[in-house]
């Protein structure tokens, strides 16, 4: 047994040394690649790539949209992280609703003909589900942005006291940015490096669409012009403290509902135990009288 353990340890040691010498990736990296490959080639990815995407490409040119609506939706899709053009997004909604209509009509005609109107209802539900995906994702992103704002504003305002280069401050914060602001900060950094400072800040403000971000961008534009914005930035820091407390309070307010759901089985168990004890006591008392 001892020799077997020594053999296992020596084999593991030789393997580790050989991996380092040959530059082989560690086991965790290989496992991560396998997981990523499995996710990439999941059944849903396969269905989307080979059955949905080709028809979406065919239907997209048929969709008619105004230039304004198309540009606005393009920005929304980019912010939401949906890799589709506006016309492809609308075409996908029509395709999925039409598929649901055809499939449900076929199934209902075979089983329950008198329930055929439900096919139209199902198609409408599917259409609004896919058509509203971008708004649902943006609402979730706005929630993430609001929760991340105190950290972001404090990092920028406190950083301005020692570093006047806003691009460096943003690049530093980018390494710890959350999902809410990560994309918008990346775009802002690229715009600042390649374009006009004020235009990049105003585009960032318009893209995020948050009142606190608007105050921060206006203050940063004024600082770039040489104006003193210490009082404005200090008020903003103070408001971030209040926002952080409000966000925490909202999260705490959601928990009593969850706690109540956990209390229900405990209360039921306590009531059952109480009735059991009372019943046994009464039974024994009646038995003694009898």
What can you tell me about this protein's structure?
Keywords: Membrane, Transmembrane, Transmembrane helix. It comes from Ructibacterium gallinarum. With 290 residues, the protein is an all-alpha fold. It has helices spanning 2-22, 27-40, 43-59, 67-80, 86-111, 117-131, 133-159, 166-174, 182-194, 197-208, 211-224, 230-289. Helix 7 packs across helix 8 (166-174), helix 8 (166-174) packs antiparallel against helix 9 and helix 9 (182-194) runs antiparallel to helix 10 (197-208). The protein starts with a helix and ends with a helix.
Task: Give the helix/strand layout.
Elements: H1 2-22, H2 27-40, H3 43-59, H4 67-80, H5 86-111, H6 117-131, H7 133-159, H8 166-174, H9 182-194, H10 197-208, H11 211-224, H12 230-289
Organism: Ructibacterium gallinarum
Keywords: Membrane, Transmembrane, Transmembrane helix
Transmembrane segments: 47-68, 89-109, 115-134, 262-283
Task: Give the DSSP E fraction (strand runs of 2 or more residues).
Answer: under 5%
Would you tell me the overall average pLDDT? 77
Helicity range: over 70%
Q: What is the alpha-carbon Rg in Å?
A: 30 Å
User: Given the helix and strand composition, which structural class is it?
Assistant: mainly alpha
Overall geometric form: flat
Order of helices and strands: HHHHHHHHHHHH
Q: Flag low-confidence runs.
A: 1-7, 17-25, 27-41
State the helix count: 12
Distance between the termini: 71 Å
Tell me the total number of β-strands. 0
Q: Biggest sheet, open or closed, and with what strands and sense?
A: none
Keywords: Membrane, Transmembrane, Transmembrane helix
Organism: Ructibacterium gallinarum
Transmembrane segments: 47-68, 89-109, 115-134, 262-283
Protein name: Type II secretion system protein GspF domain-containing protein
């Amino acid at each position: 047994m001892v020799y077997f353990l020594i053999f296992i340890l020596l084999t593991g040691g030789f393997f580790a040394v050989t991996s380092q010498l040959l530059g082989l990736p560690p086991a965790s990296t290989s496992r991560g690649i396998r997981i990523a490959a499995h996710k990439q080639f999941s059944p849903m990815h396969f269905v989307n790539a080979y059955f949905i995407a080709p028809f979406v490409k065919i239907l997209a040119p048929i969709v008619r949209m105004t230039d304004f609506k198309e540009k606005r939706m393009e920005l929304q899709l980019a912010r939401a992280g949906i890799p589709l053009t506006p016309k492809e997004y609308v075409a996908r909604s029509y395709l999925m609703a039409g598929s649901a209509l055809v499939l449900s009509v076929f199934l209902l005609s075979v089983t329950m003909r008198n329930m055929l109107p439900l096919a139209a209802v199902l198609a409408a539900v599917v259409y609004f589900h896919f058509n509203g995906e971008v708004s649902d994702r943006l609402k979730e992103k706005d929630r993430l942005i609001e929760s991340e704002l105190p950290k972001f504003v404090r990092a920028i305002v406190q950083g301005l006291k020692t570093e006047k280069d806003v691009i460096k401050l943003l690049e530093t914060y980018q390494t710890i940015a959350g999902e809410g602001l990560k994309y918008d900060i990346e775009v802002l950094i690229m715009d600042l490096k390649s374009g006009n400072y004020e235009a990049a800040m105003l585009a960032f403000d318009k893209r995020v669409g948050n009142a606190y971000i608007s105050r921060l961008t206006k203050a940063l534009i004024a600082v770039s012009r040489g104006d003193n914005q210490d009082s404005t930035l200090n008020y903003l820091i103070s408001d971030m403290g209040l926002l952080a407390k409000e966000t925490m309070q909202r999260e705490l307010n959601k928990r009593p509902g969850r706690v109540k759901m956990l209390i229900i089985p405990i209360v039921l168990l306590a009531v059952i135990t109480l009735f059991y004890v009372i019943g046994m006591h009464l039974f024994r008392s009646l038995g003694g009288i009898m």
